[in-house]
Amino acid sequence: MVQISLPENSKVKKGQYFKDKTDSKNIRKVNVYRWDPSSGENPRIDTYEVDMDNCPSKVLDVLNKIKNEIDPTLSYRKSCAHGVCGSCAMNMDGKNGLACTTSHADIKGDINIYPLPHLKVKKDLIGDLDGLYKQYESIEPWLKNNSKNNKDEIYQSQKDREKLDGAYECIMCACCSTSCPSYWWNGDKYLGPAVLLQAYRWIIDSRDEDRKQRLQKVADELKLYRCHTILNCTSACPKGLNPAKAIAEIKKMLATT
Ligand code: SF4
Ligand code: SF4
Ligand code: FES
């Protein structure tokens, strides 16, 4: 039988334990993935005892409290704190989501926090999204319209505008792509649900003149057809979007044009 084991330096070890110093009676344990590539050490899980009496409601608040009051070395991304920028995407309690919109009260027991799965890690909770952004760039996510008179507003009917609902709201957080098994195994070739939803958004934009070329560009066994409609992406999306449906629509367009 084939035995697969992780290389010694990638095994996640038990890390430091940060005991509460506030004497709070309302403590929760928070286990956080830590890895600093410059240290040469293995990744580890540090455990923090957090005083929940003085912590606002979201997982991002817990992380901010740890960073501000317990351990300033912890690294993670955040910006808007309102579910708009997508930068605080991570894996909490085994699910991908936005730390700023996920309530810690909804997590039972210890709070376990990891980076988004199957990405290289830059540091601690910061996943490496360089590859995903290159793929995003490859679908040319901007309006292509060669109207001579491009000083005028390009008209779009209300009906055509409505077609973009469910696509334009995407914040490129990558929760969907990093929950997609096809993207885990073929992320260098398969575009994945986040980028394909964006490709779809431009394909169906009535103002865009590049529809045919856009379709041809994604019509590829690896870029598109690695989607096997497993639907992890749709259940992972913190904005309630349905990238799997968008991928199915692209396939339908290709089959009928
Ligand atoms: S439906 Fe497609 S994109 Fe979504 S998780 Fe499944 S394989 Fe990935
Ligand atoms: S479809 Fe949803 S999960 Fe995927 S990148 Fe967009 S907002 Fe994030
Ligand atoms: S910090 Fe912007 S989405 Fe969470």
The named CATH superfamily of the largest domain: Beta-grasp domain
Number of strands: 8
**Structural domain count:** 2
Helical/strand content category? alpha/beta
Heterogens: iron/sulfur cluster, FE2/S2 (inorganic) cluster
Strand content: 15-25%
| pLDDT < 50 stretches | none
Radius of gyration: 21 Å
Shape annotation: globular
Summarize the entry for a quick read.
The protein contains eight helices and eight strands, in the order βββαβββββααααααα. The protein is α/β, with parallel strands linked by helices and 257 residues long. A hairpin with a 2-residue loop joins strand 4 (89-92) and strand 5.
How would you describe this protein?
- It is a single chain.
- This protein has helices at residues 59-70, 130-138, 158-162, 181-186, 192-203, 211-218, 232-236, 243-256; strands spanning 13-18, 27-34, 44-51, 89-92, 95-98, 111-114, 121-123, 126-127.
- It has 257 residues and is an alpha/beta fold.
- The chain has 2 domains: 11-127, Ubiquitin-like (UB roll) (Roll); 130-143 and 158-256, Alpha-helical ferredoxin (Fumarate Reductase Iron-sulfur Protein, Chain B, domain 2, Orthogonal Bundle), CATH 1.10.1060.
- A hairpin with a 2-residue loop joins strand 7 and strand 8.
- Helix 5 (192-203) packs antiparallel against helix 6 and helix 5 (192-203) crosses helix 8 (243-256).
- The longest helix has 14 residues, at 243-256.
- The radius of gyration is 21 Å and the shape is globular.
- One iron/sulfur cluster (SF4) binds at residues 170-176, 193-194, 197, 236-237, 239, 241, 243.
